[in-house]
Design goal:
The complex is a heterodimer of chains A (326) and B (285). In chain A, 71% of the residues lie in helices and 1% in strands. In chain A, helix 6 (94-125) crosses helix 11 (185-210) and helix 7 crosses helix 11 (185-210). In chain A, strands 1-2 form a two-stranded antiparallel sheet. With 326 residues, chain A is mostly helical. Chain A is flat, with a radius of gyration of 25 Å. Chain A has helices spanning 6-10, 18-22, 35-42, 46-67, 85-92, 94-125, 132-144, 147-158, 165-170, 180-183, 185-210, 214-222, 227-254, 259-264, 276-285, 290-325, and strands spanning 69-70, 80-81. Chain B is mostly helical. Chain B has helices at residues 2-45, 49-52, 66-73, 79-106, 115-126, 134-143, 150-174, 178-186, 191-220, 223-228, 235-246, 250-270, 272-279. Classes of the chains: A mainly alpha (326), B mainly alpha (285).
């Protein structure tokens, strides 16, 4: 469940670059010494390691165990082994299938839109201009506002059909009073997610832009390349890694979206905005069915781990590269 | 010839300056547009309920602090949830630091043999979908009588923040000058003395920034707070529940949301750089 792609095990900070990377002399590197010495080194790490294993790994193993059982919290004695029945029940449940599809749809569209917006903003903010610091600070603020507060405010002051600001802004364009969260439920959620996550994408791409190879840019300028060509052939290839990283990390975080849906649409209208996390929550707290909730959880876990595998691999690549540069 | 060249370059310079101003204006317009919902929240919080519900929306009005006094002193006020949030945030952040600082030491300054593997292991726990572990966490919390108890949240938030804190603190430790640590070692300082007397004082700004990141996540968390607490809500849960039970009072909501967000926004502005470092799992400096 938590095994790593084999490529990772040798990757993280790149073998040879290590002493330079951590800035310490050679003799500080671990030497296979007496046992006591090794344990003395391990000791400071142990509390954190034990803690993280107990709190983050055990629940997932227990989830796996529960997912093979049929269990309703309200029915005493209902806790019994059911094999793969709960997985079958999950896949045969049209609500589950719909929720799975909704999760992919909402995550993908939010990540792509946030990345497009974030990249645009990063390119704009990367120039020298009047008030750059202020603009940057303004732009990261949406990411810092308590997400639940954002959700409540979008739902009320912006999306409201009678007094909402959005209708008022769009009125000159001939848009009437629209019940945004009712008629454009998925769009309303995606818009909030994009607003929250575009700053994150911007910061990642900005870091990529600032690490750009200035000599290559200068050479392109001397050779008379247009700024469009420079971007396509020089800047973008260098940025690609950062864009990939933003997309992967964004997916990992956004796939777990819960508050936005709980607050803005409560999964509705009908089940049109019910994603897997919300489905799972409902299974446990409204239907008290543990088995199917756990099975859904394991499916979410597997999906996320696939994305996370790519993310870790990419991350290792970046770490190796930056260690080599240092 | 020279004159002609100069003229050409001056013209192109002028044209480039024109573009420069154009993009600056575009950037500012976009920034203000994206910031607008935040501005609108703060503006609405100074309105009365009457001015909040108007069409067209009002931009000019007589500001009042009445909603803020309601938030702090009204019947259904914020004091209890505020206390809970502060408790959960402070205790979990403290716990994270107590665990992360020695661990970061063992993964950077005097590293264990398999330090790379351990780091990746920590980072990958941050990528687990916590949502998927809800069922066992709920049942364990229920059996340990930790439902509706702040400690359940403290335990979970500590685990959620530990990998990021470990990673960011480690990145500060790596940058320490080598000579310094060697001098301490020559003097025969123990690991404990080395960490508390030498390493921590120097890296304090970094550790403080890390604490801010952990505090931001703990303060904003909603999923587990909603699932595991009922009558003992934190700020995020209370915000949502009060709006569900009291109906839509926009000015009140805006004031409450402003109060709930303000600490985090300030902390985030201060710790901008470390925030990025932590969120990108150390890929960015």
């Amino acid at each position: 469940m938590t095994t790593l792609p084999s490529s990772l095990q040798q990757l993280p900070v790149g073998g040879k670059a290590l002493p330079a990377a951590n800035g310490l002399p050679q003799q500080v590197r671990p030497v296979v010494g007496p046992r006591a010495q090794a344990w003395k080194r391990r000791l400071p790490l142990l509390p954190a390691l034990v803690y993280i294993v107990v709190v983050t790994q055990i629940p997932f193993i227990v989830t796996l165990w529960y997912s093979f059982r049929r269990w309703n919290l309200l029915i005493p004695g209902s806790n019994q082994f059911a094999g793969l029945a709960e997985y079958r029940a999950a896949f045969e449940n049209p609500m589950f299938r719909e929720a799975a599809w909704r999760t992919v749809e909402m995550t993908a569209s939010s990540v792509v839109l946030a990345m497009l917006l974030g990249t645009g903003l990063a390119i704009l903010v990367n120039r020298q201009f009047f008030g750059r610091g202020i603009v940057r600070t303004l732009l990261i603020t949406p990411f810092l506002i308590m997400p639940v507060a954002t959700d409540l405010l979008f739902k009320t002051t912006l999306y409201d059909a009678t007094f909402g600001l959005l209708d008022w802004v769009l009125k000159p364009l001939g848009v009437g009073q629209v019940n945004w969260t009712g008629t454009h439920a998925v769009g309303s959620i995606v818009a909030v997610l994009v607003w929250e996550w575009a700053p994150f994408m911007m910061l990642i791409v900005l870091a990529g832009l600032q690490g750009e190879n200035l000599e290559a840019l200068e050479a392109a300028k001397v050779d008379g390349a247009s700024s469009l060509k420079t971007f396509v052939y020089i800047t973008f290839p260098q940025l690609r890694r950062y864009i990939q990283l933003g997309v992967l990390l964004g997916s990992i975080y956004i796939v777990q979206t819960f508050g936005e849906i709980f607050v803005i649409t409560a999964g509705g209208p009908g089940t049109s905005t019910t994603n897997l996390p919300y489905f799972l929550y409902e299974q446990v707290f409204d239907n008290f069915t543990v088995g199917i909730g756990a099975a859904a959880g394991i499916i979410v876990l597997v999906l996320t781990e696939i994305v996370a595998g790519f993310a870790l691999k990419l991350l290792s690549g970046i770490l190796t590269a930056s260690a080599a540069m240092a | 010839m020279t004159v002609a060249l100069l003229q050409v370059s001056r013209r192109s310079w002028k044209r480039r300056r024109g573009w420069h101003h154009f993009w600056t204006v575009v950037t500012w317009v976009l920034a203000l547009l994206l910031f607008f919902p935040v501005f609108w929240m703060v503006l609405t919080s100074f309105k009365t309920e009457g001015t909040a519900y108007t069409y067209p929306p009002q931009f000019v009005f007589r500001p009042t602090l009445s909603e803020y006094s309601q938030v702090f002193g009204g019947v259904n006020n914020f004091t209890k949830p505020l206390e809970h949030s502060i408790f959960v945030t402070l205790v979990s952040t403290g716990l994270v630091l107590v665990l992360a600082v020695p661990a970061a030491y063992a993964l950077s300054i005097r590293p264990i043999k398999r330090w790379r593997f351990v780091i990746v292991f920590f980072l990958q726990t941050k990528m687990l979908p916590y949502v998927a572990a809800l069922v066992p966490i709920f049942i364990v919390a229920k059996n340990l009588r930790l439902l509706n108890n702040e400690w359940a949240l403290v335990i979970l938030y500590t685990a959620m923040n530990l990998p990021i804190a470990l990673w960011v603190i480690r990145s500060f430790f790596i940058e320490l000058p080598k000579g310094l640590l060697e001098a301490a070692r020559v003097d025969g300082a123990s690991t404990w003395v080395e960490i508390t007397r030498i390493i921590m004082p120097i890296t304090m700004p970094g550790i403080a920034a890390t604490a801010l990141i952990c505090a931001i996540f703990a303060w904003n968390e909603f999923f587990f707070a909603q699932s595991l607490t009922t009558t003992n809500p934190t700020m995020s849960v209370f915000l949502v529940s009060s709006i569900q039970t009291e109906g839509l009072y926009w000015a009140h909501l805006a004031a409450a949301a402003t109060v709930a967000s303000l600490p985090v926004v300030l902390a985030g502005w201060i710790a901008q750089k470390q925030l990025v470092r932590g969120l990108s799992m150390g890929a960015l400096k």
